[in-house]
Write a structure and sequence with these properties.
Elements: E1 8-12, E2 42-43, E3 48-54, H1 65-79, E4 85-89, E5 98-102, E6 123-127, E7 129-130, E8 133-134, E9 149-153, H2 164-176, H3 200-209, E10 216-217
Parallel strand pairs: 1-6, 2-10, 3-4, 3-5, 5-9
Antiparallel strand pairs: 6-9, 7-8
Length: about 220
């Protein structure tokens, strides 16, 4: 992985051992969903409703982070028919599993002892694993919470061919467990995303990984 040259990056430190029994296997993934996570598979438990807080801080006029996030969440839920996980919008950071914000906003969570995310252009998804699960990222101000993933988006790096929706949907793909990049530009998990919905290859990759044992539980 070369985060300085990729449009979207995934920051992951991997320490894990498998914990869940596997469900029946499906066709192999279209691309390696563990390429950026050191070969370790991470995901939410089956049936999880993932609460996403959309931080309005520093979101400028004309940047519809809320709309892009809602559309991205809907696209990934449709990709699995809503059977493996679902999303909801969290009203407060303390109610969230995932926080998404623009890169110019102060991070609402600490890094739980992990290193800073790598340099990125369009977006970066961060979590901090320990043993077989991701650590809770502490909210600023010592609030109680259960955030596991922080997503930073740089709207200034988006364009007509690499839209905000493309980048947000790509990063949400990392957040649901795809720890890799496709080499095909028609996939939303391509390193420089230009499409706005998961392709058949993205969907087959996600369907494969949600049926594998969890190495890192989110």
């Amino acid at each position: 992985m070369h985060p300085a040259r990729s449009f979207a990056a995934l920051a992951v430190i991997t320490l894990a051992a498998c914990t869940d029994a596997a469900a029946p296997r499906v066709d192999p993934p279209a691309y390696d969903p563990t390429q950026l996570s050191g070969g370790m598979l991470y995901r939410w438990p089956t049936g999880k409703t993932i609460a996403v807080y959309i931080d309005p801080t520093a979101v400028t006029t004309g940047v519809d982070l809320s709309g892009a996030t809602a559309a991205g969440m809907a696209a990934w839920k449709i990709a699995l028919g809503g059977s493996e996980f679902s999303f909801r919008t969290a009203a407060f950071p303390a109610d969230a599993d995932v926080v998404i914000h623009v890169s110019t906003a102060p991070r609402l969570v600490g890094l739980a002892g992990c290193a800073d995310p790598p340099a990125f252009t369009g977006g970066v998804t961060f979590f901090c694993p320990a043993s077989d699960s991701a650590l809770t990222l502490p909210l600023t101000g010592s609030q109680p919470g259960h955030v596991k993933i922080d997503i930073a988006i740089n709207p200034a790096a988006t364009s007509a061919s690499n839209s905000l929706l493309s980048v947000v949907t790509h990063e949400l793909g990392h957040a649901v467990g795809i720890g890799g990049h496709s080499t095909i530009a028609l996939d939303v998990m391509f390193g420089t995303p230009s499409v706005t919905v998961p392709s058949a290859r993205d969907i087959s990759t996600l369907r494969w990984l949600v049926r594998q044992p969890i190495a890192i539980r989110l």
